[in-house]
Design goal:
It is globular, with a radius of gyration of 19 Å. Strand 5 and strand 6 form a beta hairpin. By secondary structure, the chain is α+β, with helices and mostly antiparallel strands. The strands form two sheets. Strands 4-5-6-9-8-7 form a six-stranded antiparallel β-barrel. Strands 1-2 form a two-stranded antiparallel ribbon.
Length: 175
């Protein structure tokens, strides 16, 4: 168990907050990252919306793939896949975490790809529809389905349900 003291600089501490991380979660944070990452092993599906060479599939009929999420945060995901992806490709992702509904049409941009054991480790950064205005032309943005949404909005809801379901599961197993 860790303890953190909070208070204004130069003043006495105002509160002590205790926190504890239990399985099945491994939560990581370092000073270089803006978001806490959670290690999980769950499936992910994805469709390419725009490939790095410029091919555009606004209706989601581009190349599809599947993989396994290795870790997830509000900033994005790290996944393992046997499908070839290129950095700067834009994806529509579908996540299904144990005990939760599937969340579809989450936007992401591939930031890095590394070869690993016959497949690829792929880092996908979360993006909003507004960020697409910096990446796609206005004509392309207008052609996209309206239900493509920010990774952060949909992911926040999904992770809250996932953590809640896991805690309920742990509580039932302890009885």
């Amino acid at each position: 168990m860790s303890s953190k003291t909070t208070g204004a600089k130069g003043l006495r501490p105002t509160a002590t907050v205790d926190f504890e991380v239990r399985s099945p979660f491994k939560i990581m944070q370092d000073n270089r990252r803006r978001f806490i990452r959670i290690d999980i092993d769950e499936p992910i599906g994805f469709k390419t919306i725009k490939a790095v060479e410029g091919t555009f599939w606004p209706e989601g009929d581009g190349p599809e793939g599947k993989g396994e999420i290795l870790n997830i945060s509000a900033g994005g995901i790290l996944m393992y896949t046997e499908n070839t992806l290129m950095a700067n490709s834009i994806l529509s992702m579908s996540l299904s975490l144990e005990g939760c509904d599937t969340v579809d049409n989450i936007l992401g941009i591939v930031k890095r790809v590394e070869i690993d054991s016959g497949g690829y480790l792929v880092g996908v950064e979360s993006i909003t529809r507004e960020k697409l205005n910096d990446i796609l032309s206005q004509i392309e943005v207008d052609q996209l389905p309206k239900d493509l949404a920010s990774f952060n909005e949909k992911l926040r809801t999904l992770l809250n349900h996932y953590v809640f379901a896991r805690k309920l599961s742990e509580g039932t197993n302890e009885k």
